[in-house]
Amino acid sequence: xxxxxxxxxxxxxxxxxxxxxxxxxxxxxxxxxxxxxxxxxxxxxxxxxxxxxxxxxxxxxxxxxxxxxxxxxxxxxxxxxxxxxxxxxxxxxxxxxxxxxxxxxxxxxxxxxxxxxxxxxxxxxxxxxxxxxxxxxxxxxxxxxxxxxxxxxxxxxxxxxxxxxxxxxxxxxxxxxxxxxxxxxxxxxxxxxxxxxxxxxxxxxxxxxxxxxxxxxxxxxxxxxxxxx
Length: 229
Known about the structure:
Number of domains: 1
Strand content: 35-45%
CATH class: Alpha Beta
CATH superfamily: Glutaredoxin
Largest sheet: 4 strands, mixed
Distance between the termini: 36 Å
Structural class: alpha+beta
Helix content: 10-25%
Number of strands: 15
Radius of gyration: 17 Å
Number of helices: 3
Strand order of the largest sheet: 4-3-6-7
Shape: globular
């Protein structure tokens, strides 16, 4: 398969209102790059390599979301989760798309492209304007996350990810190859709403194999705040 694989979805919900704009000069936050991928997709390894490269850039949070709709086609991706597929469906609705596909990259929640198109991905990262409308920080003991006061409203979500994993793929389109995945998200947890007032949320600290990212995201997909360990 040479092009991105496309799957149909139903457009099930309306897009939320746009987030409020920052008043005055905002703090900066990391740029957020999300890849929707699968070890069972032959078009995905080049995009996985792009995510690996992006993840090494300072000032970027790069996350790999392994969708589960490929699992029935010959190889069950050990990093796949229903939550990754649900998140991709949400983006499809926001972008007005009737289909989802792999590999797809979303930059800062508002711009999407084929994940293997390296030049387009890096251009989007360079053009991003990552203002921190909602400043986010993790406590020194890694047991809580704080979202400071700001302008706007959004949802606070915790993403727990495997920092690096190598998998020998035995079946499916990539059979006989070894996948090396960075920052593969294996848990998504909604911590709660943020409505402009400072809030704190308890979290479980990551173990030695995991990192965590916390995003504050508006109803239109825009990233209002972000941090990662």
